Prior knowledge:
This protein is mostly helical. The protein contains five helices and no strands. It has a single domain (2-126), classed as Up-down Bundle (Four Helix Bundle (Hemerythrin (Met), subunit A)), CATH 1.20.120.330.
Amino acid sequence: MKKYENFCxxxxxxSEIYEYEEPYNNVTLTGLVGLYGICFExxxxxxxEILQTNGYPESSTDSPRMILKxxxxxxxxxxxxxxxxxxxxxxxxxxxYNSDIALEIIRLCxxxxxxxxxxxxQEIESGRHAFISVGV
Length: 136
């Protein structure tokens, strides 16, 4: 599944977020926020692909919110509110020129979102759900 592979690659790149500590220079801060944004995009698109493959009609939408809600109902993700919070952070990337917003995104990524993405990867790879099949 191409979207899942893209998600895994972006998650691997995002792991580099832990190699940097505050204070960040502007280029580093922008890059770290960008890595988060890419990983979030790839995660919800991987979820969409899995849901599509398994016949969920809601997967025809291009709404990350609808995909996350459906993924929660399907048991692919366990903390709907955390994922919706991550989506809000992704939406705030457009305002990352404001260093306070950018720093908050990085702090949340380090404290919550990176682990959230790891849990999704583990859930997909575990095969606990018979309807999920990825070549891992």
